[in-house]
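FAQ
Q: What does a multi-component entry look like?
A: The components come first, one per line:
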Amino acid sequence: MTVDTDRIPLKISRYTEGQTTDGYDEYMVPYNEDWVVLDALNYIKDYVDGSLAYRWSCRMGVCGSCGMMINGKPKLTCSAFLSEYYPDPIVVEPLANFRVERDLIVDMDDFIHKLDSVKPWLIEGDSVPPANREYKQTPAQLAKYKQYSMCINCTLCYSACPVASNEPEFVGPAAIALAQRYNLDSRDSGKEQRLDVLMANEGVWDCTFVGECSNVCPKGVDPAAAIQQAKLESALAYAKSLIMPKGNK
Amino acid sequence: MRSIKHDILIIGGGGAGLRAAIAVSQENPDLDVAVVSKVYPMRSHTVAAEGGMAAVIKPNDSFEDHIYDTVSGSDWLADQDAVEFFVRTAPSELIQLEHWGCPWSRESDGSVAVRPFGGMQIERTWFAADKTGFHVLHSLFQTTLKYRSLQRYDEWMALRLLTHDGRCQGVAAMELRTGRIVPILAKAVIMCTGGGGRVFPFTTNAAIKTGDGMALAYRAGVALKDMEFVQYHPTGLPGTGILITEAARGEGGILVNNKGHRYLSDYDLGKPLPIDHHDHPKNRTMELGPRDRLSQAFIHEQTKGNVFEGPHGTYVHLDVRHLGESYIEKKIPFVRELSNNYGGVDPVHEPIPVRPVVHYMMGGIDTDIEAATTLPGLYAAGECACVSINGANRLGSNSLTELLVFGAQAGRNAAIFAQQHGISGENDLLSQTQDEINRISELLGNRAGDEKIADLRNIMTSALEEGAGIYRNAEGMQKACTTITELRKRSKNLKLDDTSLSYNTELTSAIELDFMLDIAETVTFSALRRKESRGSHQRTDFPERDDDEFLKHSLAYNTDDAPRIEHKDVVITNLPPAKRIYGGGK
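Then the predicted structure of the entire assembly, as tokens:
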């Protein structure tokens, strides 16, 4: 911490179960240009108000725990530097489009369920190599799905998604990107099963090309592209099914 | 009080825990498995591992070489039977993970690619760019989702092991969402909670790495083994301690002091080859020496005044500029991202400031080659366990492999144990849970306390850094022991601001502090008793390795007072103790 007495105001959303009105607490935190918003939260928790509740762990942008709304935008607090905001106040709120559990902690159950629903595991086909041999996969084949494998499940994309805010059933950007991660993997044979899940809900068709999900992704994943690919493939599969009913391919 | 019952209970949802869970189902799909984790599994710290995972797969490699590298890297403190099992099982475990979808980096012919790593004679480190741990963890987590017999307790914190009839039969765990404490009973329990690097102030470890599982086993009477061996990784970013992977050196990065000199050549690590030489980087030489030796070299350079001074302390330069932008983007993109975000430099254009940082605990719960502890029904795997394959110094890229090999081993053996035993003495197990509820209620309701968690934590971490850092001596360690003992008393008098039950993260911090004090005391007291220098345990007052007295594991047992330290022999099979030689030859 610098000896400089320079400080920056943080306005933080507070919530405890049963509370009926929106509440914010304001804290003045020492300004340090090396600090991220998470450092400021830790300072508050350690030295000002131990009751402030939030999730965090790796503090290096890979565990996906510390997503919050910072001045209205979904961000990882470990990657949002105070210097981006200084000297203006920083408003910290829980991720939008999720039910709040406590202060800055949101309910993740629904997201975890959605992730699970797209069958995000490798579904074997007919040609599995023996137990002592790897699948051959060229760098070009790896490149096809690699970016979709980079999702850290931080759920910032759900907070940014206009469809997710209106249609809670929408399986959502990260889960669809994960489905595509396996659909595009040369080792996988489960695409048909996953498309059925993706298309079971109307939500996906409401997704426009806004691409907010891809804009906020801290890892450069492009869920919007995954959704558009899924729509296209689904439409093709549908057209095909009209000609050749399932089980008769 | 209502209990929850499962056949097998796994504590910790990182790489080892998830591999164990799948292994149980592979062994016997009828067994029902529970995973208790204080974070959602994909948040587990396995996610932060970067460089890779060692296993012999290429035709130019051999089991014997991997065994030799691991044993010599351990400064002969590893148990050689365990190392042999580890090395021989590693390839099938990694291929299994490949079949589960792990996106390994590839050669142009589609086979899995390998890279060189510190202390290894041959390139045998599999990698997924430089986010290997992230991909390993997500592949494992996603694979577990297809096993419907697996029930997860995400964001539940383990508080106390429940034992009856001389067997471990469950855990008292707190659901963080509600604060309720519930006995989760099982026929066998597997501990997979990872390390405890947070007992030090400057660490690569995530906030959750507070040694919970080690402390739980210690309190249940199991020894913590070789706790004095703490690995400093030579290349962390000053200030944050964020890890810059050894893969940066495996791909050809060099370490340079403030005179522009590749100083490792002054520390018995061989001669520097020019960066454009076809043999650079040379295995087991210079930048590809073992972590203990590289971190020690930094301290000598600091004493000589050959380091840079910055706002976050001293540092040297890790230079990867000669690799070029496209190669850096392909092989070590995360190094670039982290250096840009947290180091303020783009390694394509500038050297990265780095210094040694606490990274890994070689020590842990005393387990054998079966991943079993001395408490029947309790198994352990991963960083929280000490088999030991790592001895006095772990080689980079052996720990991710260890998660799989011994996670699977623990899962299989726990499954067998669970089929031979039932749950007994339920009233006793519930009564132990009630004791735990009372203890936590007292902590939560202590209005008379006047100690702050952060204050005690800061004193503890400073004491460890000063007393049990890279170089140690009796006086410093004794002082650290005294400080930890005092903190024990002061920690009975904590005052919490937060009185709520839902996500009371101040309460969880208090519980973690209590766990960390257990880890801290086993580190300092074990270190004080080991009067020699070996691997990561270097004493200025006993600078030589002493095989006559200390070719032995330390065992720290919990008592009402200071830990009781005992020793037991190291298992030697084919490699009698010898001098560790790097920089050419064996």
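Q: Is there any commentary attached?
A: Sometimes. For this entry: The mean pLDDT of chain B is 97.
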